[in-house]
Amino acid sequence: MKKNVKALICTAALLMSTNTILAHDADFNNDLQSTNNNAATFSNASTQPTIILDGRPFIPSVPLQNQNGRLLVPFREIGEAMNATINWQEDLQRITMFRGNRYSIMHIGNPNVQYGEFAVGVNGNINFTTQQFTQIEVSPVIINNLTYIPLRAISETLGAEVIWNEQTSTANIISPPITTPPTQEPVTTLPEKVEEEDTLPPNFGDFSNTSHFRTISSRQAQSRFNDSDSEPFILVAYDSSSNDSKRLVPDIQDAAQSANFRIYGLDKNADNNNASENAWMWSFIRQSSFTDPTIFYIHSRTNVNVVTNPKIDDLEDSFRSFHILTETGIEVGDFRNTNHFRNVSSREIETMHRNNEEFIFVLYDSTDDNSAFYIPIIKAAAREADHRIYAVDIDTNSSYRNHLSFAPGIDSTITRRIPMMYLVYSDNNRNRTEVYDRPKNVDTAESLIEEFLKNSLNNNNSNNNNNNSRYDDINNSFFINVSASDVTNRFRRGDEFIVVVYDSSNNDSRTIVESISDAANITGQSVFGVNLSSTRFDNTIREDLLWLNLVPENHRNNRPLMIHYNNQGIGRNGHMSFHNLNATNSFNQAFEFIQWVFPPR
User: Fold this and answer.
1) Please, which residues have CB within 8 angstroms of residue 516's CB and are 6 or more apart in sequence?
2) Cis peptide leading into 560, omega within 30 of 0?
3) Is the dihedral of CA 29, 32, 37, 40 positive or negative?
4) Do residues 56 and 168 share a domain?
5) Is 567 part of any domain?
């Protein structure tokens, strides 16, 4: 039986299964490191690594190869040593190795490797029951008319374990017992049967171009593929003479239209798409387990996801996900914090509003599909506009309605409208909150942020002079008055910053605060100010002054007070303070303190 299986394997036509998963397995990028990375071959026997295969030395008749620190072995000799069946296809430059019920397929000069398990049909055909893909750092290569393959990649794709001993330069390969591949019952293949005319879908066989589906030639497809690093795209390869394509391609067109994203079609049956017209493109498609139709999600030339027999119900979400990732660079459902997107509690938003701050926040639900799609758009817009926005996840903030009652739209129907974007202006600026739900693209969301920046008092360099004191609301690009709650958030995040604590009710502090502002301006370093008697912010809330408790009481009473906080643990408390400021030399003291904390580059 074993000889018969091996004979069948050598002569069988390779029939690809219908389910393909493309996964880049990082483990295969850790091939064996040799002690002589610069040499193409090992110069003598003493420098050759030792290979132990199932307890016995493997000594090939030709030198081993070392390419970019990866150990390459002769294809046929390692295959025979592993009791595997090997096959070489000259026209495709394809290497196939079968061992037990596992297989591995590589191509000369191609980093993509296909591997998995297979079964043998009664008629002798091989059916790949599982298919996985990975990329390796060093591709198979032909040297002196001999084919070399990476040792780790071929071993692990066939199920073996590879242990590398750096001290002795020894690769120990432990392969699993050979398992006879299962036998599958023959599948009777019936001729394609066209359904009765009255049962065919109304758009059966409609391959016409639309605003979201464009048929291109194989030469155009190759040109787009070559540009895919900067312009990712989706390609549908189909055969207009096939009933499968006639049924599925119209549904694929509808899914693209619903997702509002253009995809491209490549008709195998078109006159200008024969193999001789553009051999490379069709070779690429054949190597990717082509069935009719097949969808290629081409993120870049080295990142291609292949889907055969697509599930129509999932295509719209799949196209939208691809669109969002290519437009924003952010995966669908990515709610992580970034420099411009910060998850906070609804209580923190309530405090910011009570302190009369102006800000943007987004209300979303991390368990909701709409949030999964639109939050990446909003995050990308915040990054493009270079302005931080805040986010409240109602899944983790069960009492958000109580805290956010100031914002319109917080009601029992909110979950049908999220994510919602709120532009919150202060009482001194029209006393209003603007609400927008589900910004459809990055440009729309970015325009909302820019509208906020244009109309916000905190961002247009306008001064609020309610108490006629310059230092109560100093607004320049380097001395920034904020609320105590804002400093609390920065402190909790572990940000590094300088804050000046002062009291505008004390006239003696006027000159000192103005000097600090001038010093910040000259040094070019941002300094935050917290006025304990501010007319703009409520800075009397005890829980918002936790960061101030790290400063000794006698120092806190000596205001104005400059404090440097960071997350590196300067001193025991992670902060240092400068409190002996005086009106005479406060500018020099502030200037030296800022430059000591943030040395000029």
Assistant:
1) 479, 500, 527, 560, 562, 581, 586, 587, 590
2) yes
3) negative
4) yes
5) yes
Q: Identify any residues that bridge with 303 across adjacent strands, giving them in sequence order.
A: 300
Together in a domain, 245 and 351: no
Cα gap 152→580, rounded to integer Å: 66
> Which of 331-335, 417-421, 546-550, 584-588 has the weakest average pLDDT?
546-550
- How far is C-alpha 371 from the chain's CA centre? 17
Identify whether residues 398 and 499 lie together within a single domain.
no
Question: Which of 295, 328, 361 is at the close of a domain?
Answer: 328
Q: Is the CB of residue 35 less than 8 Å from the CB of residue 146?
A: no
Dump pLDDT digits (tens) for 197-238. Answer: 456 777 888 888 888 999 988 888 888 888 888 889 999 988
Q: Does residue 376 sit in the same domain as residue 423?
A: yes
Q: Which domain holds residue 532?
A: 470-597
Please tell me the distance from the alpha carbon of residue 568 to that of residue 351, in angstroms, as a whole number: 28
Q: For residue 109, is it left (φ>0), alpha (ψ between -120 and 50) or beta? A: left
Same structural domain for residues 11 and 158?
A: yes
- Tokens encoding 284: 């690429």
Does 164 fall in a domain? yes
Cα dihedral 71, 75, 81, 86 sign: positive
The CA-CA-CA angle for residues 146, 148, 149, to 5°, reads 155
* Structural domain count, the chain: 4
Q: Is 150 helix (H, G, I), strand (E, B) or coil?
A: strand
Which of 459, 492, 526 is the last residue before a domain boundary? 459
Name the one residue in this structure whose structure tokens are 């079968």: 98
The predicted-structure confidence for 334-388, as pLDDT tens digits, reads as follows: 998 888 898 988 988 888 888 778 899 999 999 988 899 899 999 999 998 888 8
